Amino acid sequence: MPGTIIHKSGSLLNSLVNRNLCTLSGIFLSKHPYKPKTREIIHPHMTPPEYLTPSGCFSAKTNGLQQYIPKNYYRIKWIESMRSGEYLGEDYPWNLLPNWKYWKKRKYNVTYNEIPWFISKIKGVSYYQRLNVWMVQWVENGVHRIRRFRCAFGILQAKLAAEQFRKNLEESGRVDNRKSERQLRMDYIQKREERILRKKKYSKISKGQF
């Protein structure tokens, strides 16, 4: 019996010596060798209002030599984090729990993104899961128009293409409520002859000449 124990202990020692340091650390230090699946937490994101001035918390500078903290900075920051979805860490919301052993030994991993992949910051760009397309919608000269971008070659690639297309539309003045003063003036000059012709027709109709 003692010889058997010595033989087993010797074989165990030889097996441990032949292993590398990582394997030894895995044997003695790893209490949970099973790595569970990663859970994706989708935090609600809302685009900020377009025609309002940005909040004062975005202009604050809390680091460096020249610091600037506006009035009610922490309250405004707390409100903005609740409204728009502030990045609170990869392990949010479980990273807010106390640093006890009970929470450190949990058997799940968490990933958290600032903005979900199916939401776009650009206005008029939305994802339709049933059709598996990114759709761009805009109004041009009073006509509602739609263009679809299929996700056959990649969802994120289609998203970038849709956002770039929307930006090109706004820069070229094809969106009614996104035109600059120069673009509005050019449209007014181009439609001058049409307005004059309409005015002549209306004057003849009102006089009973037609």
TrEMBL record:
Cross-referenced Gene3D superfamilies: 1.20.5.2050
GO cellular component: nucleus
Compartments where located: Nucleus
Domain spans labelled AP2/ERF: 120-171
Recorded superkingdom: Eukaryota
Main location: nucleus
Family matches, as InterPro entries: AP2/ERF_dom
Provenance organism: Plasmodium malariae
Keywords of this entry: DNA-binding, Nucleus, Transcription, Transcription regulation
Pfam families: AP2 (PF00847)
Example GO molecular function: DNA binding
Protein name: Transcription factor with AP2 domain(S), putative
